[in-house]
Amino acid sequence: MLPLLLLGGCAAAGGAAAAAESGRGHLLIVGGGQQPRELVARFVELAGGPGRARIAVLPMASAEPEASGREKADELRVLGAETFVMNLARDAAMTDSAARLLDGVTGIWFTGGDQARVTPVLLGSPVLRAILARWREGAVVGGTSAGAAVMPDSMLTGNQFRTDTAGYYGDEYPDVARRTIQVAPGLGFLPGTIIDQHFIRRERHNRLLAAVLERPALIGVGIDESTAVEVGPDGRWTVRGSGAVVIYDARRARITAPDAPVLGTAEVRMHLLPPGAVFDPRTGRARLP
Fold first, then answer.
1. pTM (global) more than 0.85
2. Left, alpha or beta for 42 (phi > 0: left; psi -120 to 50: alpha)?
3. Within the chain, where are the H helices?
4. Please, what are the domains in the chain?
5. What pLDDT is attached to residue 171?
């Protein structure tokens, strides 16, 4: 039986990164914490607006997915959207019948929790292919916290490893060192990036910088709480909400060799972007408001 909870007026029943590059919809990627009403309303607007938005909520990251999904669906419904919750296990995500539930949706939202609960369910599944298809057709895909971390093709899992030079414990990141940060495949909606959430509030600079310096082809995006990066069909990123976004761009940096005893770098570009700022990942340039 499909483990799926439907709420109120539901919608009609290759590689992720490559597919993502042809997307025509928006992304709204929130760094966690309290979501200002303006961000939730913006998601509904991007999904077609009140009376037209038809949004699927995917709560698998949450430790209490049914409660989390219902809460988000109710919040979106108050703003005029049709909503339903898809709480999927792997077996269900691998079925065409689950994928067809996404026919006609104009928005897909991933809740917070633990991102490592999401990718084992969706990677390589018909449901993920259906979400990518809806996005290519113009739907908006968004998420918060763990739902933000899953958006790139490379995903911080939240796990870290102790080495002889750096002791990482729980949610603390006391050093910038090699071989300390675990990275796994993400869903691929934002290729060439890696996202960290709750970024300024939880002082996660060391984690993201270490991950980027080991993978300098990736742009590091640190999104603070109550803050979002909106990615438009033209590929540019706009900061929304009440906090800031930090970007680490090491694509042209000089970095110590992988076998060097310490991790070092020169000429990394860093941007601190307040609401209203715009960043173009193709050029690496930002415009402040």
1. yes
2. alpha
3. 16-20, 37-46, 65-78, 90-93, 96-100, 119-122, 126-136, 146-149, 205-214
4. 16-275 (3.40.50.880)
5. 65
